[in-house]
Amino acid sequence: MATRAKPKDDRYRLPAAAERRSRKLAEERFGRYLSEHDLKLTPERREILQEFYRIHEHIEADELMFHLRRAGVRVSRATIYRTLDLLVQAGLARRISLGKDHSYYEHILGREAHEHMVCLGCDRIIEWLDAELTRLVFRNCAEQSFSPARHSLQVFGYCQDCSKTSEAHKALELGEDANLSSGD
Asked: What is the helix (H) or strand (E) element at residue 105, kind and residue range?
């Protein structure tokens, strides 16, 4: 599992009462989506949905399984993956690939649209909002008579902590290690 820095603030976290309403609304919408597709909101799917909406960070399916098992809920890995896919299809979650061979998930109901910066050194994920960027995306879509369903912007690079290490690695690759040696 990738190690990721925890968010330094709770700007994406809703007040407790709003979180409960958001989970209830998500369950209602998910139940409706499943019913429309001749599927059932099983106890396992309900538990997965509830736990997923308690987590306020990007999470892998295996991490969600760990959270569920820690809470005493036993569900198979396959059920978790299938349920996460259904949540994405229902518009209640977003699957994001952040440069690795696996996907992360985040719930989107009640959250502002945001973008991601991904550190190639430590896998830290930094969420950021930019209203001007969002306006630019929708303006360009309108100019092209394009109806956007969603958008995603991911910037890959090095966080402040890793950028120094990255510069040192680049210098070594370029044969510029003379400046990096100590005491010479």
From this structure: strand 103-107
Residues in a beta bridge with 43: none
Q: Decide if 75 contacts 67 (C-beta within 8 A).
A: no
Size of the chain, expressed as the number of residues it contains: 184
d(CA 125, CA 58): 8
Amino acid residing at 66 = F
CATH numbers and ranges of domains, the chain: 1-111 (1.10.10.10), 113-184 (3.30.1490.190)
- Dump pLDDT digits (tens) for 32-44: 999 999 999 999 9
Residue carrying structure tokens 């909101």: 41
Q: Which residue has the tokens 């061979």?
A: 101
Give phi and psi for 59, each to the nearest 5.
Answer: -140, 145
Cα–Cα distance for residue pair 113/122, rounded to 1 Å: 24
How large is the angle between the packed helices 43-54 and 61-70, nearest 10 degrees?
100
Longest dimension (CA), the chain: 72
Regarding pTM above 0.90, the answer is no
Enclosing H/E stretch for 50: helix 43-54
Closest Cα partner for 102 from 114, 84, 90? 84
Residue 4 is encoded by which pair of tokens?
């990721």
Nearest to 23 by CA among 59, 49, 61, 60: 49
